[in-house]
Amino acid sequence: MEGGGNPPFILRGDIMAFTVNLYTFSKKVNSTARPSSGATPYNCVTKEPCGILSPTIGLNLGLEVNPHQFNYAYIPEFDRYYFVREWTFQNALWYAALEVDVLASWKISIGAQNCYVLRSSENYDGAIVDTTYPTNGITTLEESTVISPWETDDIADGMFVVGVAGQSTTYYLFTYSGLNLFFDYIFSDLYAQDVTNDWVNIFPQLKSQLNPLQYITSVMWIPFVTTGTAVTTIRVGWADVPVAAWEVDGSGLRYGQNDFILHRHPLAATRGEYLNNAPYSRYTLFYPPWGVIQLDADIVANSDTTISAIWGVDLRTGQGTLTVAGGVGHITSWTHSQVGLHYQVSQVINKGYGAGNTFLPMISAAASLGTGNVVGAITTAASEIGNAVASKIPSATTIGSNGGLDSLRGIPALQYEFKDILFEDLNHRGRPLCANRDINMLTGFIMVADADISIQATKAEQDSIRSYMEGGFFYE
To answer: How far is 328 from 291, CA to CA, in rounded Å?
Structure first.
């Protein structure tokens, strides 16, 4: 037993006499609390048979004493604490109907148990989801923003990536003014003179047959400034174009990164970090031109302080990839979108009679000139040009298609939706712990799972103790 040194029972026929300590004591039924003082000892008797779990004892207090103020008792001979269920007066004796307080009686033994503690008011793990308290429908909205990586949404700024065909396609970077100079030149008399070896001065109609755009595979505008290997001339078809530009280096990929400072659920610091997870928190990334991206709340919740948005753009295609990562490189999103805008350029030419179609007769004319047959050369060239002009209706050749600058506009933002939860009662409900603990290492409210206790109590007492521990009790 937990006590010891109790005096022997006093037996007289069918009467058993012993001492009882009566208390006026306030306590919770599911508590191990014991009174530390205030005992009023009385001699009491009970008739046989007398159980130790629910005894009824009689006290000769006289008519002048009313024991209604006593609601708690301790019987040293039984080494147990009791609640007083009822007082009755009969045959000049006050009778107290007692009921054992198993938690107080076996407090020390209960404290020595090692159990799997589900909830505790003193020791808990804030990362464990606590479904005890529902949300109340109130949502807090917040956001983190960064500076847009796109330096401009004005077509006059940024850079242009132009693919020029030769033995292979080479990509060059131009400023807006540089691109204008480039196109001005390839549509100029100087370029026509270079290509035709000055024949265009003799036959101006040849200019209508030149199509420099056949050497331009693509024109892409990108919303930021970048450079490569500087060049001063670019080979376009049969002639070199003097222009300042940069050749795209290596893979032609450009990267950048933005880090969003994470906001946490307003109640996470006091109620538990599980509130940073779904369904209590929702994280949405807005990042032009990739749009609105729903992020995995579990990855975001387990990130330290930032969420990283890493973008890459292929200068050749304008295709962009956005990788969103949190924690230790955990990827929460990987999306694609068009960042570069196709830039449309055009030239009115005769369909089917571009430069490639006119070079053969031009070469024939050049051969006639080379043999001194100037008239033949002029006649041949004029005939070919005349036939082309007479037989074909001019049409427009275009490269690329226009995109929209509006998709690039907007400030990248990580948006938060935090669901509020109802007020908690930590002292009476505790919080999740879900770990093995020695009970006497905790105080306050405790709820255990599978209370396989080992106590030298009666089976009825052990069943009652197990029920209290699994339903929640107070170790005080």
So the answer is: 25
Which fold does the domain 10-101 belong to in CATH? Thrombin, subunit H (2.40.10)
Cα–Cα distance for residue pair 386/354, rounded to 1 Å: 14
Q: What pLDDT score was predicted for residue 15?
A: 63
* Bridge partners of residue 82, in order along the sequence: 73, 100
User: What is the pLDDT, as a whole number, of residue 232?
Assistant: 96
Q: Give the pLDDT band of residue 82 (cuts 50, 70, 90).
A: very high
Per the document, the length of the chain is 476
Q: For residue 92, how many other CB atoms are within 10 A of its CB? A: 10
pLDDT at 266 exceeding the cut of 90: yes
Is omega for the bond preceding 49 within 30 degrees of 0, making it cis? yes
List Cβ neighbours of 238 (8 Å cut-off, separation of 6 or more): 194, 195
The string of pLDDT tens digits covering residues 437-451 is 999 999 999 999 999
The pair phi, psi for residue 320, each rounded to 5°, is: -120, 145
CA 1 centroid distance within chain: 55
Measured CA to CA in angstroms, residue 147 lies from 261, 395, 410 at distances of 13, 45, 10
Neighbouring CB atoms inside 10 A of 169's CB total 13
List the chain domain ranges.
10-101, 109-132+424-475
Does position 391 have pLDDT exceeding 80, yes or no?
no
Helices 374-391 & 355-370 angle (0-180, nearest 10): 160
Determine what percent of the chain is predicted with pLDDT higher than 90.
64
Give how far Cα 4 sits from Cα of 1, 50, 461, Å. 7, 20, 19
Write the single-letter amino acid at 460.
A
Note whether 265 and 281 are within 8 A (CB).
yes
- Tell me how far the alpha carbon of residue 396 is from its chain's centroid: 50
d(CA 462, CA 460): 6
Q: How far apart, in whole angstroms, are the C-alpha atoms of residue 210 and residue 196?
A: 9
Contacts of 375 (CB under 8 A, 6+ apart): none
Residue pair 159/173 in contact (Cβ under 8 Å)? The answer is yes
